[in-house]
Amino acid sequence: MYLLTRPRPKLNASVLAFRQAGLDTLGVATTDIESLPEQEAALSEHLMRGTLPDLLIVTSVFAARALNRCIEHCPNRLRVSDLPVIAVGMATADCLTPVFKRVTMPQTQTSEGILALPALACANCQHIVIIKGEGGRDALRATLTARDKQVSTFCVYRRTMLERPVTTAGAQISEVSGIIATSEQLATQLLQHYPPHELRCLPWLTVSERVADSLRTQGVKDISVCAGASDSALIEWIKNNWE
Questions:
Q1: In a domain, 166, yes or no
Q2: Residues 149 and 211 in one domain
Q3: Domain named Tetrapyrrole biosynthesis uroporphyrinogen III synthase: which ranges (predicted)?
């Protein structure tokens, strides 16, 4: 059995995808998602100005949904929907493509993958808007600012830690043969909620070397990295490497 940790709104759909692929999976949510209407309103106001940004970067499905809501009521919707958009992964891109005409994503679906895209080095890409969750993807803003880009950031949601994890089925850690964690925060919270000595001896799968390095500092030894954070990418990796 695999242990998959996702935020609460994504948990059931992800576990269902894993099970439909034939992977016995226990889902664990340690965080919930809280929208931040004030930041969403500020993003709407920003997009209604006469001078639009050159590029939008959207770092999650939750950020994409907030952006789409902003566009619904935007008087210059056609102009905004023509802006180039970088989505961090496939699920985020799928959420944006019904609204935006030019959506791309990096081959490596991480902040580092976004920063390596040629579009960010173009001379006509000076004003960039990042739409993200509170406290996440700070390296994006810092690196782009260091490249002399004008960066506006809108944190349209926050992750809140649950008092007790939400699980999709009753199971013991002793039944788990591998752990999938797609962010540093989810991985760390998992180690806080469950006996860490039991989790550290298991193989882990995550989606960036940055998260892998964080896990190593917490005593996890066996860590692999998948190039994508989508359910389909993780499932394919597991079938090719753990099955």
A1: no
A2: no
A3: 17-236
Low-confidence ranges of the chain (pLDDT < 50): none
* Residue of 152, 83, 153 lying closest to 119 (CA atoms): 83
- pLDDT of 201: 93
CA distance 90 to 61: 9
What is the pTM assigned to this prediction?
Answer: 0.84
127, 150 Cβ separation under 8 angstroms:
yes
* C-beta separation of 47 from 99 below 8 A: no
DSSP bridge partners of 103:
85
Query: For residue 201, how far is the Cα from the chain centroid?
Result: 26
CATH of the domain at 194: 3.40.50.10090
- pLDDT score, position 170: 73
**Distance between first and last Cα of the chain:** 11
DSSP letter assigned to residue 153: E
- What's the number of domains the chain is made of? 2
Chain centroid to CA 242: 23
Largest distance between two CA atoms of the chain: 58
Q: Identity (one letter) of the amino acid at 151?
A: V
Q: Give the pair of three-digit tokens for residue 148.
A: 């002399």
Among residues 50, 46, 167, 61, the alpha carbon closest in space to that of 109 is found at 61
To the nearest 10 degrees (0 to 180), the angle between helices 231-241 and 8-20 is 40
Whether 150 and 73 share a structural domain: yes
**Please, which residues bridge with residue 157 across strands?**
35, 133
In a domain, 164, yes or no: no
